[in-house]
Design a protein that fits this description.
Elements: H1 46-49, H2 58-72, H3 78-83, H4 89-98, H5 102-112, H6 119-153, E1 158-160, H7 162-170, E2 181-184, H8 190-199, E3 203-204, H9 214-217, E4 223-228, E5 233-238, H10 252-258, E6 260-264, E7 267-271, H11 274-287, H12 293-305, H13 312-321, H14 325-339, H15 345-350, H16 354-367, H17 376-384, H18 390-402, H19 406-411, H20 422-435
Parallel strand pairs: 2-5
Antiparallel strand pairs: 1-2, 3-4, 4-5, 6-7
Helix pairs in contact: 2-4, 2-5, 5-6, 6-8, 7-12, 11-12, 11-13, 11-14, 12-14, 14-16
Length: about 425
């Protein structure tokens, strides 16, 4: 067992002195987002925009207000106003869990809620923070072990999310939950990386049909999931930042050329440059249709902690090179609306875009969905907004409907000679999902 670096075990103690966030002002998002009132909607967004949502329930609103207090260092007094009202604490905690926001939620309420938070609730939230810090200490140890293994194998690797992001965006790994390690390698290193993880006790999480080449099966998604059953740990091995079907892409070669050496609790690792990390967080949230509030909080928190490091002009140029302009614009607008973040002047001007406003409306409807989920159709319409021409949209739809993915292979195991049948299995599976 590799000993933890000195100082790691004091992480939880530093929670009390980890206020490193600047002030954030802006109106609390209370009402539903409105679509199409001032801007003529693009055709691919018209259907999605008819389904309007906002922070429509008291529980979600309280989670958002806690996040705002967390980001602003407690200067937004709206949290105290909300806490003065009757609170269904079980429902609020479930909402925080659903959006993977428990650590910042617990931190904000225990630090800024005062006597407005019942004693038993404060104690429970403090226990959650302590538990998360202990869990993340275990992840730190495994992260260090795997990085050393890749270094010994001569495989350069960039750490995405996980403890790296917790350190860079939150300045304390106890303040973010994560359940796996995300590692980015160059495409030519997939086989070597696979063998390295196998030597370290990992295996593919989802076994394929006999004789199948898992790397080729999952090449469009450009990632493989590995599990170590003995340690109870997961690793997502990426050789691309995003699924190849998306119109916005971050070049792996470009990411590695700009990568920087960083440090977290005595662990040295390779990180994305500040500009690429900002773009990656925006693209990741967009890819997953802002499935959780944490996706947005990651980017907002990084904006606060990396004020000096982030070169916004360079970020814009990198966004243009990666076809990520709309991804960046609407993500910043969404963070501004939800968390009241004050954007730098250069980005305020950059984001003054009618289509970006419209897509931010759509993203808000997905984030604050009333039923706790969204369907294949809503996600498809949202992603189509980022494609500039009809040929690209037709190609995207074709790939989404007919090109098999991991769920299709798991749903039905076919021998290699019958793999072509997956192109028929996928649309049938999607139709069943759509009408169910």
């Amino acid at each position: 067992m590799i000993p933890l670096p000195p100082g790691v075990r004091s992480l939880f103690l530093r929670l009390r002195s980890s206020d490193s966030y600047g002030p954030s002002k802006g109106p609390v998002l209370q009402n539903e987002a409105t679509f199409g009132e001032k801007v003529e909607l693009a055709s691919v967004m018209q259907t999605l925009s008819s389904c309007r949502h906002g922070v429509g329930c008291r529980e979600m609103n309280l989670v958002v207000l806690a996040a705002r207090a967390f980001l602003s260092g407690g200067e937004d007094g709206c949290l105290q106003v909300a806490l003065a009202q009757p609170v269904d604490w079980a429902a609020v905690e479930r909402m925080a869990e659903q959006h993977s926001m428990m650590p910042p939620f617990a931190y904000a309420l225990t630090r800024y809620g005062g006597d407005l938070v019942p004693r038993e609730i404060r104690e429970r939230l403090q226990q959650r923070l302590l538990l998360n810090s202990r869990t993340n200490l275990t992840w730190l140890q495994e992260w260090r072990r795997i990085l050393l293994a890749f270094e010994a194998a001569g495989i350069p690797v960039i750490s995405l999310k996980g403890p790296a992001l917790a350190s860079q965006a939150y300045r304390n790994i106890a303040l973010r939950e994560f359940c796996d390690l995300d590692l980015l390698i160059r495409p030519g290193e997939v086989r070597a990386a696979h063998d390295t993880l196998v030597r370290e006790g990992y295996e593919l999480r989802f076994s394929q049909a006999p004789g199948a080449d898992a790397a080729s099966l999952l090449s469009r998604n450009r990632q493989l999931e590995f599990v170590n059953h003995e340690r109870g740990t997961l690793i997502d091995l990426h050789w691309g930042a995003l699924h190849e079907m998306f119109s916005f892409q971050l070049s792996v070669d470009r990411l590695f050329r700009a990568a920087q050496v960083a440090e977290c609790e005595g662990i040295t690792f390779l990180s994305l440059s500040p500009e690429h990390l900002m773009l990656y967080l925006c693209a990741h949230g967009t890819k997953h249709c802002w499935l959780t509030l944490r996706d947005l909080c990651d980017g907002a928190s990084y904006m606060r902690t990396a004020t000096r490091e982030l070169n916004w002009e360079l970020c814009i140029r990198e966004a243009e090179a990666a076809n990520c302009e709309l991804v960046l614009k609407h993500s910043l607008l969404l963070a501004q609306r939800v968390f009241g973040l004050e954007l730098p002047s250069v980005m305020r001007n950059y984001c003054e875009d009618a289509k970006a406003q419209m897509v931010a409306d759509a993203a808000s409807s997905l984030l604050f969905r009333k039923d706790g989920g969204f369907g294949y159709r809503e996600a498809l319409l949202y992603h189509l907004a980022f494609i500039k021409d009809w040929r690209g949209r037709a190609s995207f739809i074709c790939k989404r409907v007919f090109f098999p993915e991991e769920p299709d292979w798991q749903e039905l195991r076919l021998p290699r000679s019958l793999y072509f049948l997956y192109y028929a299995v996928r649309p049938v599976r999607l139709l069943v999902e759509l009408f169910s």
